[in-house]
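Hi everyone, sorry if this is the wrong subforum. Our group has a chain we'd like a structural model of before ordering constructs, and none of us has done structure prediction before. Sequence below.
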Amino acid sequence: MYCRNRSSSLANFIIVPIFLLVGLGLCAGGGYWGWLTRDFVQNAAIAPGTVVELTRHSDSDGVSYSPVVEYTLPSGRTVRFEEDVSSSPPSHHVGESVEVFYNPENPSEARINNTFTLWFGPGLLVSIGFCFSSISLLIGVGALFAFLRGR
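Answer:
Right subforum, don't worry. Here is the predicted structure as tokens:
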């Protein structure tokens, strides 16, 4: 029994900080990504755009499609960009009108105004980080109670 408690507390001593650090790191990364997204959206200019093409991507998981969008700057120059996010089935269709957020200083830095594609990544990282942190805290509190009960 003594060996089991000792190895169990050693495992908790190693696992809890690792889960906590991973969780906090994921939360920090997701928070930073969210902050960058918020900053981009707040400082972006907005223009109407049109999906002109769907780029096909193939890998071992299958086929996905990312929209290629064209929009026109106030100067009359047309800008074309490919959305970073691809999906299967395609999230947009050729000819679809979309709202575009773009960086006025670098118009090729643009994103389709879509809540899911803008915020899913940061939200996912924060959620996973929260789970890791919560698990580590539950294990840590459980180990502390077990230690205090065994005294």
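For your construct planning: The chain has one domain: 2-150. Strands lie at 45-59, 62-72, 78-82, 97-103, 106-112.
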